[in-house]
């Protein structure tokens, strides 16, 4: 019953980025694969009547500090981008476009974008910067722009958001493992125990 | 510089209860003491424009499941009370009353109430049930009732809430260790690392 681990992430979520750096190796150690699923946290938050942690007074300052500390704790390079958060629908549409033909290529795109944003501050909401990343990822000139303006891929992303909400996702990162939901980078120890010794 | 660990908790917070069962032993292993501070999450949430996790759609179902799983993960007996959450201002006022003379006795009261609520479902918001717990804790008949109706102890609890908010507290459990804030039962691994090897 080595089912894949569903991994829901948002391109502008620091905790998603941190988790993206450990989930593959952890899954592989236990003979599991990972199904990456790009979602828009905005849509997910709306369904759950939630807001970003950085849009709350008091919690905002803590969260900015905790992003950096949690990255250090996980041994992941991290620098809070000067522009944060950013719009991630275009990066997400390209993800689902690549995913249709080759999920591994979509994962490579996700890693490239997450690392560019959270280590070098590349603004994923800026179409010029995103097009440059697409070129780096091997897409033809103009291909990424055509994807993110295409109603088909806009619709594909909406479907992904709806499916996530239907699966109980209300934040990111969010994992589903053998049907069991785990929310947050900080559920790593529980996921590890589950993978090592099963349900607890 | 073995400063105490500040431990902010609410009597109706499942994650506070779980943390209350491990923080003392962990602190003691590292030569630290714990300063327990009862707060009202309602007041804290209001300042940070937040709500309880169980008052959000979708997140509610996950949270109820995660309370139980996180308790099992920590090896702590737990049963979600049939009435949840409950009003905890009276239990908190008795805490601060006992704290004025003997902080250790206030901690014993906190443990007694948290365990009664989260293992036996004793309604801490019910004055008869709370008075019975006060008797169990060795208070004279009528003493607890006099405390929670006394403007002096109402005011003491308000001061505790205001001090928590001023310290950056926006949820519970919340720890401050060498000036470093940690929010949530799930920050235990980071607190452990800090205690073992200092700032990271």
What does this structure look like?
The structure is a homodimer of 200-residue chains. Chain A has 200 residues and is α+β, with helices and mostly antiparallel strands. Chain A has a single domain (5-197), classed as Glutaredoxin. In chain A, 55% of the residues lie in helices and 9% in strands. The first copy, chain A, is built from ten helices and four strands. In chain A, strands 2-1-3-4 form a four-stranded mixed sheet, sandwiched between helices. The A-B interface holds A 47-50, 56-59, 61-62, 65-66, 69-70, 72-73, 165, 168-171, 181, 183-184, 186-187, 189-190, 193, 200 and B 47-50, 56-59, 61-62, 65-66, 69-70, 72-73, 165, 168-171, 181, 183-184, 186-187, 189-190, 193, 200.
Map the helices and strands.
Two copies of one chain form a homodimer.
Chain A: E1 5-9, H1 14-20, H2 23-29, E2 34-38, H3 41-47, H4 59-74, H5 89-101, H6 103-120, H7 127-136, H8 143-148, H9 151-166, E3 174-177, E4 180-183, H10 188-197
Keyword list:
homodimer; 200 residues; alpha+beta; Glutaredoxin; four-stranded mixed sheet; 9% strand; globular
């Amino acid at each position: 019953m080595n089912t894949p681990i569903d991994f829901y992430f948002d391109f502008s979520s620091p905790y998603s980025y941190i988790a993206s750096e450990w989930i593959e190796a952890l899954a592989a150690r236990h003979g599991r694969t990972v199904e990456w699923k790009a979602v828009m946290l905005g849509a997910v938050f709306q369904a759950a009547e939630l807001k970003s942690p950085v849009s709350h007074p008091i919690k905002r300052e803590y969260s900015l500090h905790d992003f950096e500390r949690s990255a250090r704790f996980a041994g992941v390079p991290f620098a809070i981008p000067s522009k944060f958060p950013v719009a991630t629908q275009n990066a997400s549409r390209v993800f689902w476009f690549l995913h249709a033909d080759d999920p591994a290529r979509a994962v490579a795109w996700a890693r490239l974008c997450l690392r560019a944003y959270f280590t070098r501050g590349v603004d994923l909401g800026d179409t010029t910067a995103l097009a440059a990343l697409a070129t780096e990822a091997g897409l033809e000139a103009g291909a990424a722009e055509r994807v993110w303006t295409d109603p088909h891929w806009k619709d594909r992303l909406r479907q992904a958001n709806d499916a996530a909400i239907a699966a109980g996702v209300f934040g990111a990162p969010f994992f589903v493992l053998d049907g069991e939901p785990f929310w947050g980078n900080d559920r790593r120890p529980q996921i590890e125990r589950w993978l090592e010794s099963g349900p607890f």
